[in-house]
């Protein structure tokens, strides 16, 4: 809703328009508060188009309520008149109807009683056979639709039960199978493997540098420097390097086996809690469906 600008204060027509809009908004707020009662009114954009739409809606709602009240009063008055007519029914009419019924043969009386009961059970205001037939077909259709919906609810309930059982079985497997349990010494093993890997990498770099220096000295010194002891040293160094490389590969393979696991036990327990929450949600969904079916 727009506010008054300084120029509008000196314009009587604009000031009157703003007062009228303020009154309309006050009426709309009161009308919405009466309909929402203890609930909060949803937020909406306040402009001229919204105001016009809400005023039209309020007028239509008020008109509908008035028409509903008129119909209700007419139905009550008609019911009172019918009750009065039934109470004021002449005794002669009752005697004639009773005599007429007694004069009918037994099969006719049975048919009349059956027809009247069918009219009452089918909630029809007439005993016409065509009206009773239409009402019976409608009742049969409604009963068939309800049976189909009930069968669908039973099927849905069975599927939820099956999913709940599968989820519970998966949860039990996670809790009991060893591969889902984090070893208690995992942090220690990880730290030890990491330390050994760093140590072996440093030794590998050291031996590689020594081998390169030895090869360089052999090249500089010529064939006389390259003695049997130097060759044996080179062979030993190569063997040590290969051994260290194999140890590094072995340690890296062992670390790879623990790569998918978290660093602590709490993260593994979190997965179990997630599955347990799924079980709780499925169980609540099943109970809600059962309550709706029973209700």
How would you describe the overall organization of this protein?
By secondary structure, this protein is mostly helical. The protein has 3 domains: 1-88, no CATH class; 90-121; 172-294. 81% of the residues lie in helices and 0% in strands. The chain is built from 8 helices and no strands. The chain has helices spanning 12-36, 48-87, 91-103, 106-121, 129-176, 186-221, 228-257, 265-294. Helix 5 (129-176) packs antiparallel against helix 8 (265-294) and helix 6 (186-221) packs antiparallel against helix 7 (228-257). The protein is elongated and about 145 Å long.
The 3D shape can be described as elongated
Low-confidence stretches: 222-226
What percent of residues adopt helix (DSSP H or I)?
over 70%
Oligomeric composition of the shown chains? single chain
What does the main sheet amount to? none
| End-to-end separation | 46 Å
What's the gyration radius in Å?
46 Å
Secondary-structure element string: HHHHHHHH
Supply the number of structural domains: 3
- Tell me the number of strands: 0
Sequence-ordered SSE layout with sheet pairings:
Blueprint: H1 12-36, H2 48-87, H3 91-103, H4 106-121, H5 129-176, H6 186-221, H7 228-257, H8 265-294
Helix pairs in contact: 1-2, 5-8, 6-7
What would the keywords be for this entry?
mainly alpha, about 300 residues, about 0% strand, mitosis, 8 helices
Short structural summary:
With 295 residues, the protein is mainly alpha-helical. It folds into three domains: 1-88, no CATH class; 90-121; 172-294.
């Amino acid at each position: 809703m727009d506010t008054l600008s300084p120029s509008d204060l000196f314009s009587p027509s604009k000031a009157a328009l703003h007062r009228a809009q303020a009154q309309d908004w006050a009426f709309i707020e009161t009308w919405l508060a009466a309909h929402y009662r203890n609930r909060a009114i949803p937020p909406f954009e306040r402009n001229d188009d919204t105001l016009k739409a809400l005023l039209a809606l309020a007028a239509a709602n008020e008109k509908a309520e008035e028409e509903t009240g008129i119909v209700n009063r007419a139905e009550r008055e008609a019911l009172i008149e019918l009750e009065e007519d039934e109470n004021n029914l002449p005794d002669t009419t009752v005697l004639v109807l009773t005599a007429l019924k007694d004069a009918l043969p037994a099969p006719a009386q049975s048919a009349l009683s059956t027809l009247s009961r069918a009219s009452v059970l089918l909630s029809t205001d007439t005993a016409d056979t065509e009206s009773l037939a239409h009402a019976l077909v409608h009742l049969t259709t409604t009963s068939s639709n309800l049976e189909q919906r009930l069968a669908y609810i039973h099927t849905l309930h069975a599927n939820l039960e099956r999913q709940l059982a599968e989820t519970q079985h998966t949860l039990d497997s996670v809790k009991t199978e060893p591969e889902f349990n984090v070893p208690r010494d995992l942090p220690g093993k990880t730290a030890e493997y990491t330390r050994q890997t760093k140590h072996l990498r440093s030794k590998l770099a050291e031996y590689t540098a020594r081998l390169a220096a030895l090869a360089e000295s052999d090249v500089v010194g010529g064939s006389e420097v390259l003695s049997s002891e130097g060759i044996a040293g080179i062979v030993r160094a190569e063997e040590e390097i290969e051994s260290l490389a194999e140890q590094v590969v072995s340690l890296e393979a062992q670390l790879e086996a623990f790569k998918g696991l978290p660093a602590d036990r709490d993260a593994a327990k979190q997965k179990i809690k997630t599955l347990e929450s799924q079980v709780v949600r499925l169980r609540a969904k099943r109970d809600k469906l059962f309550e709706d079916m029973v209700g």
